[in-house]
Amino acid sequence: MANAGPIAIVIHGGAGTIAREKLTDEVEVAYRQKLEEAARAGYEVLTRSSKEKGSSSIDAVIAAIVVMEDSELFNAGKGSVLTHAATVEMDASIMEGESLNAGAIAGVRHIRNPIRLARDVMSRSDHVMLIGEGAESFALEHGYELIDNSYFQTPQRMRQLQRIQNTTTGTALSEDNSLGTVGAVAIDRNGNITAATSTGGMTNKRFGRVGDSPIIGAGTYADNSACGVSASGHGEYFIRAVVAHDICARVMYKGIALQQAADEVVLIKLKNMHAEGGVIGIDPQANVVFSFNSTGMYRAAIDKDGELEVLIFKGISD
Amino acid sequence: MANAGPIAIVIHGGAGTIAREKLTDEVEVAYRQKLEEAARAGYEVLTRSSKEKGSSSIDAVIAAIVVMEDSELFNAGKGSVLTHAATVEMDASIMEGESLNAGAIAGVRHIRNPIRLARDVMSRSDHVMLIGEGAESFALEHGYELIDNSYFQTPQRMRQLQRIQNTTTGTALSEDNSLGTVGAVAIDRNGNITAATSTGGMTNKRFGRVGDSPIIGAGTYADNSACGVSASGHGEYFIRAVVAHDICARVMYKGIALQQAADEVVLIKLKNMHAEGGVIGIDPQANVVFSFNSTGMYRAAIDKDGELEVLIFKGISD
């Protein structure tokens, strides 16, 4: 394949009910800065010579997601939402569109950057998906440090859990950023598309619950012939709708553009299921796509012309 | 919907390398009898009046799969293959094609009939997928007895594990029925299609490994507008190929028949990935489909004319 194709990266920091009036200027600025930092971290990888080690779209999405996992602002890594038992359990997945290789982990509690472990499951194991203590035992064998669960927990998430547990229903459903995900999709100079997603899941979720983020086909999917997609939203519905693969399947079999395919799934199919959320994607021509049916989605992209955009609400200037 | 549509059920007891010369007459008869018993158990449910409780395609696939989970012949429930640590860890999933509701469990060790628990996750929880101890804690709350892991272990599976661990590579890959799955797809008088899959996974798998069986879209998928599918094969590839949803997507978006869609995925796409296995399916007209690229697949169906067939090898009379 030609070694001079266009490069691009798109990231999200969660889709959901984002009330503009509740977002202070200070917090909004913090989100925009961190989204820009994450997008630039991934893009920098893509600009390296493709002969250099660490210049692939795999490396790019990892670089972007690690920035968000390390930030308390997003529901992934540090700052993940809390389970019903007030602990953090994280899920992540990655898929690379040339070989259709994939890796996923679910229910890990002691891995600083879950997305790195998903990548090692893809690259260094015979398996695609490892869960719970089995995933952490694999991590130990591969030199990971197991860190205390308290590292991930923040006072803000504890208040959020208490607020939800004090409501009469104690519902685990979407409420002021009580769910969310981070994700990234990138295309490198070789035309290779990688998609990846990482999350703490849903506030007040019961112990052992797995959402769409670590499910290849639901939260994450990549195929160089069609697209790469990372999703964020109410995971139960996203699993049932096989969101990421369904979008790619519409591109492949209906021959429609990625934006149209994403809108059909997010604005029609998911909306009809009353499922809130959104997706990001990139097609083989390096076009960047967003689609969401929630009031907002934290998102950023650096497109094939090198233009950065950082957005939170609906409307292209928001 | 009309209350007099055609009914049908199709089941499988695993696809893989089945050497005719290694299968004694006695064992072959045992397999054929158990497959027939499972298919009849499911079909009997479908023949009940649709006003009766317990007459749906959900009830039918559960009835069929429980017969196979309770038999030592198949890699699900009792008789599941052993992990590297010589324990049994089971996965299961179910999806119903009218509402697109789904339930799945992974990594359970003490549930006699994992498929029943998957159904209860679908019907009695807010979640689609529960894993490990979280799934078993949910089971306890819903009146399940947690049984000792030794119940599932059989001398035959221990010998199989030792044989694989004594080879130089210790590979966990397909070898004389070292992987396998059971599954069922049914359509009831209301035209509702349900698909379900249950498995012990792969012999010598590392602890925490999850294959395609509990992954909605990969091992199991159902949508009344297109088809229901249950898969059996090398799970890592089946996840990456999103097998069950990809077959349904080809029916929906390419407008081809279910048999052709299944053959495209199993005989071309999976074959090109060097992935061994197969699928069963039913379309909205109650046509039954098999497709596999392995030497055999334990399978049976009672079709819309009430005709039973029980097959193991390739060829319609085998």
Please outline the helices and strands.
2 copies of one chain form a homodimer.
Chain A: E1 8-16, H1 25-47, H2 57-69, E2 90-96, E3 101-108, H3 114-124, E4 129-131, H4 132-141, H5 155-166, E5 182-187, E6 193-199, E7 209-210, E8 220-223, E9 227-233, H6 235-240, H7 243-254, H8 258-272, E10 277-282, E11 288-292, E12 296-302, E13 308-313
Parallel strand pairs in A: 3-4
Antiparallel strand pairs in A: 1-5, 1-12, 2-3, 2-6, 5-6, 8-9, 9-10, 10-11, 12-13
Helix pairs in contact in A: 1-2, 2-3, 7-8
Can you describe this structure in just a few lines?
Chain A is of the alpha+beta class. Helix content of chain A is 32%, strand content 24%. In chain A, the strands form 2 sheets. The first copy, chain A, has an 8-stranded mixed β-sheet.
What does this protein structure show overall?
The structure is a homodimer of 318-residue chains. With 318 residues, chain A is of the alpha+beta class. The first copy, chain A, has one domain (8-312): Glutamine Phosphoribosylpyrophosphate, subunit 1, domain 1. The first copy, chain A, has helices spanning 25-47, 57-69, 114-124, 132-141, 155-166, 235-240, 243-254, 258-272; strands at 8-16, 90-96, 101-108, 129-131, 182-187, 193-199, 209-210, 220-223, 227-233, 277-282, 288-292, 296-302, 308-313. An eight-stranded mixed beta sheet of chain A has the order 4-3-2-6-5-1-12-13. In chain A, strands 8-9-10-11 form a four-stranded antiparallel beta sheet. In chain A, helix 1 packs antiparallel against helix 2 (57-69) and helix 7 crosses helix 8. Residues 171-175 of chain A have low confidence and may be disordered. The interface between A and B is large, with 48 and 48 residues. Strand 4 (129-131) of chain A pairs antiparallel with strand 7 of chain B, so a sheet runs across the interface.
